[in-house]
Amino acid sequence: MINVIGLGYIGLPTALMLASAGNEVVGTDYNDALVETLKNNKLTFEEPGLEDLFTSAINSGIKFTNEYQSTDFYIVTVPTPYDKEDKKIDPSYVIAATKKVLEVCKKGTLLVIESTISPSTIDKFVRPLIKEAGMTIDEDIFLVHAPERILPGQMIKELKHNSRTIGADSPEAAQKVKEVYSTFCEGEIVCTDIRTAEMTKVVENTYRGINIAFANELTKIARHDNLDVHEIIKIANMHPRVNILSPGPGVGGHCIPVDPWFLVGDYPRLTSLISTALEINESMPEMVLERISYIMKENSITDRNKVGIYGLTYKSDVDDIRESPTLQLFEKMEAHFAEPFRVFDPMLKEKVLENQQMDYTRFLEESDIVVLMVEHSHLKDNLSSLEGKLILDTHNLIENAYKL
Ligand code: SAJ
Asked: Which of 24, 64, 239, 313 would be 1's cystine partner, CB 3.0–4.6 Å?
């Protein structure tokens, strides 16, 4: 039996995939309300294909509980927040989960950590716990790091088709874990050591963050000379070896703006490129604010209540608002003692902010300037609804709009 610990954005789809592929799976989470919701056959977040997968996993017998199971195979997918002050990973959830696993696991158990962790977290924080518990690595317990790579918005497809990395101390342990993941993963599964697997995961997200930062810096250069950055990127990308990503109002989510800090925190003197890239991405909401001020001035609008922000989630067509550029923008506004602008997001069914308007028509009625922060499908399907508005388009969707 596989016990998946932590049923969030990664743990839940992974547990469902494993179950519907025929494995015996129990999902454990310390959040009672979340467990109750799942037990009542209701999902805790939206994701294309997740409902069908949920049904199939339930039919295959998946169970949900708040208790750790006594078994010999654990997959830990708990959050790994980072400490904003010292820019280091906060391993407390991984430590707590490992301690609980050690209390109940059987001899020879496989402990797979899937959560994103900074390089050497397993050496620094997990191995000592095993020693403390009086257990021996590679006898009582086999350690594995198998970081996930799935993209919110296409998680189910990517769970099936992405290649994966499995880092383990022993090739035998890696092979056993590979066999389990192979029950649903059709991509290539590469086995390596734990340190390499830890580093590789963080490097992948850092690579993307740096490339987005380059596109964002180009936006600033282009704005300085009143050039169209999107046209420049489009033409540059026609070069066979150039592939610049899309600039935008900032970088959100729990991965790209967070994981590179793990490297900066651990290797402060070796990461000047990475920390500059992070700063560039973090400066983009400020640029949005400057552009809003410019548009208000140019159109003689003085009432800030006439500004409406479209999009609160961290990217299009997801309902996750963690570290979203719009939240970052509101934080910057608060720093200047200003009330945040009104906001609307079609992906959010419940009100999470005081200044959130839940009705799109009213949102439009109340806003003379609409700032497009997120390019949801809802917006692409309703472009005509924006006619007559002053628009700041941070994603190059609308031809005659203000751009970043
Ligand atoms: N963004 C841009 N420009 C782009 C692409 C993205 O500004 O060209 C912004 C998005 O709008 C968003 C942020 O970056 O605010 C992050 O979005 P994303 O789609 O790039 O990535 P995530 O955070 O949803 O998922 C990433 C993925 N990592 C990589 O592509 C290297 C995913 O594969 C990982 O599994 C995930 O992080 C994770 O959990 O680590």
From this structure: 24
Q: Please indicate, yes or no, if residue 280 is contained in any of the structural domains.
A: yes
Query: Do residues 60 and 53 touch, judged by C-beta distance below 8 A?
Result: no
The CATH number given to whatever domain includes residue 132 is: 3.40.50.720
Residue 91 and residue 74: Cα distance in Å, rounded? 18
* Statement to judge: residues 277 and 392 lie in one domain: yes
Q: How far is the CA of 256 from the centre of ligand 1 (A)?
A: 6
**Does residue 200 form part of some domain?**
no
> Ligand 1 atom closest to Cα of 318?
24
Specify the pTM.
0.94
User: Which residue, by CA, sits nearest to atom 25 of ligand 1?
Assistant: 151
Residue 222: the pLDDT is: 98
User: Does 148 share its domain with 285?
Assistant: no
Would 211 be classed as within a structural domain? no
Same domain, 49 and 150: yes
The reported pLDDT for the residue numbered 88 is 80
Say yes or no: 272 and 381 in one domain: yes
The answer to whether 229 and 218 are in contact (CB under 8 A) is: yes
Q: What pLDDT does residue 360 have?
A: 97
Q: Of 105, 185, 191, 255, which residue is the catalytic one?
A: 255
Q: Is the CB of 252 under 6 A from ligand 1?
A: yes
Indicate whether residue 62 lines ligand 1 (CB < 6 A): no
Whether residue 60 lies inside any domain: the answer is: yes
Residue 246 in contact with ligand 1 by CB distance below 6 A: yes
For residue 9, the enclosing domain spans 2-195
CA atoms of 3 and 76, how far apart (whole Å): 8
| Two tokens, residue 169 | 């101390």
Q: Identify the pLDDT of residue 340.
A: 85
105 classed as catalytic: no
CB atoms within 10 A of CB 378: 18
Count of alpha carbons within 13 angstroms of residue 118, beta-carbon side = 22
Does residue 255 have an active-site annotation?
Answer: yes
Does residue 53 sit in the same domain as residue 123?
yes
pLDDT reported for residue 28: 98
For residue 208, give the ligand 1 atom closest to its CA: 31
Q: How many domains does the chain have?
A: 2
Residue 302: φ, ψ to 5° = -110, -20
Give me the average pLDDT of each 10-residue run along the chain (404 residues).
Answer: 97 98 98 97 94 97 98 96 80 97 97 94 97 96 96 95 97 97 98 97 97 98 97 98 98 94 92 98 97 96 94 95 96 83 96 96 97 97 94 95 96
**175 and 269: one domain?**
no
